[in-house]
Specification:
87 residues; mainly alpha; 6 helices; globular
Amino acid sequence: MVEALALCGGEAGAALGELAWCDPEWAGAVPYGPVDAVDSWLVGAPEVRSRWLTLMLAALRDGRLDAVAARVLVGAADRLCAADSTR
């Protein structure tokens, strides 16, 4: 499942961006909507979110993911760390 969720970048992300739940009217003005949407789904599952972030950050590092997603991923990592520190 985590590998499938990591496909929200690249061509798959562009296709997901065409779906209604990524529309700025629904999801807000998010520069990389599909990545942000998937991150929001994983808020209640920190272990899955951590594995997903690992895959996404690796894709960002090696150029498989558009650099515009970096802001969303760094924010997601910050929130994950903050949630972990409150436990």
